[in-house]
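Re: Re: ligand-bound prediction request (bumping)

Still looking for help on this. To restate: I need the protein modeled with phosphoenolpyruvate bound, output as structure tokens. Inputs repeated here so nobody has to scroll up.
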Amino acid sequence: MKKQYIAGNWKMNLTLDEARDIARKLCDGIADAETVDIGVFPPFVYLKDVCDILSDSKVFVGAQNMNMEQHGAFTGEVSGGMLKDIGCTHVIIGHSERRTIYKETDSEINSKLKAALLNDLQPILCVGESQDERDADKTREVVEKQLSGGLLDLKPEQVEGLTIAYEPVWAIGTGKTATPEQANEVHAFIRNTLRSKYGDDTAQSIRIQYGGSVNAGNAKELLGQPEIDGALVGGASLDPNSFLDIVSKAASFS
Ligand code: PEP
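Reply:
Sorry for the wait, this slipped through. Here it is.
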């Protein structure tokens, strides 16, 4: 069985005190870090503080986004090298909020993914369809395009051990979760797509998280699906008790 990976995306939430408080609570409360990979993704400005608090723990700290360039005249941006420099080890790339609100393209996402790997940051690549696309029966087409665009020109050894988050846009922050069967079906499609591109061993080495209104109440059923290897959690990750509860549900499947 694969080690489950539970990641908390804090988005643009919390004060510095609250962020530190959650980090300390995770540090004290994590008993399952041996069996589950756990990561938190605070806003940029809290990363250093959270990295410092969690530096002796097994909880990964990552950013919610990064720039594709190494340095230069890119006002307001943060590079992978800078993230690495302050102790980050992970990064989320291509979250649907970045795709829809900030119009990130698959090509930009691909460049960011390559920059993350260059800086030895472990990326989570997010893919997922909108409600309209699902209604038009285009889920597979959309996810396949995001995968092939996002992973363009990556070698099998670069894709090995990667994390993909399947996050149907209609389920993010809406309280509307995909059913475990719906999620598992798309995860299986993603796995098969990866298998046909990179072979079975590489496809099996990639963890596919589900994201979209995961909470302590629905985590067990979702994480129990054969193709679901973890969760990317938004809202529920802001409450350390709920997040820890999701982690302990994951531990029973790791
Ligand atoms: C997310 O931010 O990636 C997410 C899945 O959010 P939520 O759990 O709040 O739907």
